[in-house]
Each structure stands twice: as C-alpha cells, then as structure tokens.
Amino acid sequence: MNPNVETVRLTVGQATIRFLVNQFVERDGQEERLIAGAFGIFGHGNVAGIGQALLQNELDSEPDGGEMPYYMPRNEQGMVNAAAAFAKAKNRRQTMMCTASIGPGSLNMVTGAALATTNRLPVLLFPSDQFATRYPDPVLQQLEDPTTLDTSVNDTFRVVSKFFDRINRPEQLIPSLINAMQVLTNPADTGAVTIAMPQDVQAEAFDFPVEFFRKRVWHIRRAPAEPAAIERAADLIRASKRPMVIAGGGVIYSDAAEELREFAKATGIPVGDTQAGKGAINFDHPQAIGGVGSTGGDSGNHIADKADLVIGIGTRYSDFTTASRTQFKNMDVKFVNINVLPFDAVKNSAEMVVADAREALKALTAALADYRVSDDYEQEYTREIEAWHKKTHELYHLGHGPLPSQVEVFGALNEMMGDNDVVINAAGSMPGDLQALWQARTPVQYHVEYAFSCMGYEIPAGLGVKLALPESEVVAIVGDGTYQMLPMELATVVQEGVKVIYVLLQNYGFASIGALSESRGSQRFGTRYRAGGGRPHNEEGEVLPVDIAANAESWGLKVFRVKTMDEFRKAYREAEAYDRACMIHIETDLYGPNPPSSSWWDVPVSQESRIESTQQAYGEYVEAKKDQRHYL
C-alpha cells in the first residue's frame, strides 16, 4: 500500500458496514441513505464477522458515518422478502442488507434473491462462505465437490443475482462494494446483489484507505428519450385508430404517474395496467380501463382484443399481461415500447424508445399536442369502463353465503382503506381477483408481487412495507396456504413493534391451483386440506383441525375472529385503531365466485389420458391455442 495513503485498520466485516452507512442515492434533488438497515440471522459463519461489525456499530457512541439499524428476523427467505418489499415501497431508492450463516442459512436466501431479481428490486445479500484459507476443510455445513475446491452452495446465487462476487482477500472488498452499489442503483437492470463472505475473511483485519469510506452519492439517472425515437412513436400513434397504453411497474418506479395521467388526458388514449403498474393511473381517470391480460378485467381486455397499437410503458410483458400471447387479437397490431432496458423495449418486435418513462412521456405528450383519438373510440372504451365498474360493485357486494367470497373481503378493504394505505398480496387466486377488481387511487396503494408470485411473501412483506412507509396503514392479505408456508416473521413484527394488519382468508385449500386443476381436467387433485389428503374422493372429508387464528395469537398478535362481512368491516375499523400488529380471521368460500374471465393462460394439458375430464380439457386447450402467436 502506498505509504502516503491514509488508512484505518478494520476487519472486512467492519469495513463493509462503515462503507454502507456512507452510501447515498439522489434523484430529482432528493437524497437519502441507500442501505436503510440490516436484517441478519447469525451462525458460526457470520456471528463473529458481520455480526460483530453490526454490534460494534450499535455500541459506538458516534459510529463512523452513522448507524446501521438492525432487525432480527426468523427466516432467511423471509428477511430477503422483507427487504424486497421495502425496496418496492421505496420505489427502489432504498433497500436493506441481509446476512446469513454458511450452508443452509445462506441457501435459504436464494428464493428471496430470485424474487428480487425477477421483480427487478434491489437487495444486498451477504451469505457466509467456507474458509478462504481452507485449513478447516471441510468446514461444518460445507458442500464438497470432488472436481473443484472452489465451489460452495453460494454459487447457486450466481444465476439469480444481478451481481455476484466472493471476497477471498480483504482488498477485494473495495472494487466489489463499489460495483455492487452501481447495480443496486441501476434504474434499468437491478436485482439481488450477492457478495459471498468466507467466514475467516469477514474477521480478518486490513489497512483500508480512509478515502474508501467517504460519503458517496449515487445519482439515479433519467435517460432522456431520443427525439427521433419519439417522432417514430408519435407517427405510429397518429396512424393508429385504436391505440392503448399498458402501464407497468416502470411508470411507478420512474415517478411518472402524473405524466401518464396527463398524457392520457391530452390524447384520449386509454390506459390499462399490469400488476406492477396498477395505481400509476387512478382508477376513476376517464382513460383508465383497468387490468389487462389473464388476470385483467373485461374493460381492459375487450379494448386490448381490438387494439391496433399497444404502447407499453415500463412493462416486461409477462405471459399474464399478454395472456400467453393471445390477448392482442388484431392481426395488424403493432407495438411501441418505452423502457429503460433495451431487453424489454424490443419485446413483441416493437418500435423501441429506450428512455426513462417520465422523460419519454413528457416528450411524447409534446409531440402529440395536435392529436386525440376519435370520439367513437372514446365512447366505446367509456362504455366498457362503466360496465366493468358496475360489475366490480356487484362482486364487492354479493351477499354470498353461507360463507362470504374473497372478493367481498377485497371490496370492503378497497372501500375502507385510505389513498396512501397499502394492500399486499402475492400468490394464489387473490392476485387475479385483485388486479381485475381493485380500484387503486394512488401508485402507493397496490403492492402485489406477481413476477415471482412467491407464496409466503405477504407476511414478511408487511414488515418491509411498514418499515418503509410508517405513516401508511399496511394490510397484508394472506391465504391459509400461504400462511403455512412462512409465518415466522410475525415474531419479528411483534418484537420490533411494527403495526401491520394481516387479513387471513381461511378456505381449507389452495383456491387458485384448485380452480386451475379443475379447469385443466385434474379435478382439484392435491389442493384441499382434508383428512386423508387432497384427493377428489376426499372432497367432503373432515376439515383439518388447524387453528390459524390461535397460531397467530401464539406469535403475539391480537386476532379478530369474524364470520360475516358486517363483522369484518367492524373488525377492520377496530384494527385501524389498534396500535400493534393484529389479524382479522375470516372463513371464505373455496369455490368463489370470482370475477368473470375474459382472457386465457397457457397451462398445458396432457395430450393422452384415460380420465374423461382431462380429455375434455385437452380439447378446450387445443381450441384456445388457436389465437396464440408471436407478435412480429
């Protein structure tokens, strides 16, 4: 090391924390800490390394650069889910770090890493690793590979991370952390950032340059739209008769909701939304046609069926959005895609506008100052919107019995929650019902993780979102199937004094996969919680005596047990007024009813079967696939 360089002697773990507390982000003049806190589950791999560094940071009266708040989770996948939810609620401007011990502890984070990367949400992971010196070899919980000594379970993270590195020498930390920050703050291509930390290296001391720990501000760039690309897009819009917008999560992450609403108002072009984009345009905006695709509603899908130009803004066109490439039935349909990532902008053979959503919308609105859709088209989609709003109101107030339907629960929440309160969900039949029916008024109100659709997300996500938005009422809707996957972070919620309202829908089975199984001829096999298993002949079998309400109480939550919708509404107001985490428990009908479907999802059916229901389903599948095509 150059003798003229000022240094400070720290362990690798200590240097990591000191570096992170000095990292900031800035966009549009707003500056804040990038890594807002740490989740950590400790074992022999990290307790004396990063764990010691976090302790030292807490004990120091004046920590270098500031404090790194620590939260004690119970499950490694859960803490990464919480970090991802925090990042989503913060519009990707802040995130959390997560550390776990070697072997099973670290490997448990892989699912969370995949969720973050699939959703393009920044999370920072520090899995512990085997010894770099290899004196203890094999160390406890080390995976041995006879063909190489350089592989550990942490190599699994390579395929689900946007950045992966392993720190085998202390000085490697310097370029690794700097590159990691670049990925975490990349508006186009972010996700899980994984830095594997051999347990001996974490505790090893090194003379780090003091300059390494200076305050760094990472400026989140807004890529401007190329004027020629805007003009090409404008020409296509002017030439179309039935254009529509599909707003994805990129609109929200870009803080472009206001610009989208102004664009729609000025041009009259109707706007549909994806799961990630719901709320980018308020549901009662004259041009808001609602959800599009397999989980969309009639208003959005009927317009999409006939659209001759689809303007995708900040969407990655998942198979649900395109209804497995059957949604856009107009044989002459063309696409314009506005996206910061060329990989997404080129999808469906689109005319590409590679730019920040807000900047592109400003430019496109100006370029189309003399343009508006025809009166006939505007009247057509207005009729569709009015019809779907009427249908939504009917479904929200079904009076279904003897058990209420889950859509009635959603309706009650939709009507009672405030504009800046947050509803959370991720898996099962609920995201489909929510995208079709939920009437979002703001970009913050709707938080559904549907890129990875990970069962078990909702409970830790409630923790992450409430930490991000402490002034909002946070409501996580949880099915009994999801609850049994990952309830452990309820202990963290209680321990940290975090107020989340959990709404538990008990229907004794997997409603989504049960309905899908039935529609594909597999008779809801393995989807019911019944004595003797979830087989068809056990449909009326004895319901399992699993008391989720009592279990939630054992974690420390106050539980409101309700049976009717009137009781539910009363309990929600009581939960609002309660100052700690609580749950509203209600039984709902496993069989719906659900919103009417106006779209399709490609789930293959067995081509050969001796089961009559499967044979019938295969015939329906072949017929549905006739609309499927590549958009070229």
Structural summary, described in words:
It is a single chain. With 632 residues, the protein is of the alpha/beta class. Helix content is 35%, strand content 18%. The chain has 23 helices and 23 strands. Helix 22 (565-577) links the parallel strand 22 and strand 23. The longest helix has 22 residues, at 375-396. It is globular, with a radius of gyration of 26 Å. The relative contact order is 0.10. The mean pLDDT is 93.
Give the gist of this structure:
This protein has 632 residues and is α/β, with parallel strands linked by helices.
The largest beta-sheet arranges its strands as 5-4-6-7-9-8
How much of the sequence lies in strands comes to: 15-25%
- Gyration radius from CA atoms, angstroms: 26 Å
Weakly predicted, low-confidence segments: none
The number of helices is: 23
Biggest sheet overview: 6 strands, parallel
Helix content: 25-40%
**What's the β-strand tally?**
23
Q: What separation lies between the terminal Cα atoms?
A: 57 Å
Structural class: alpha/beta
User: Overall mean pLDDT score?
Assistant: 93
Shape: globular
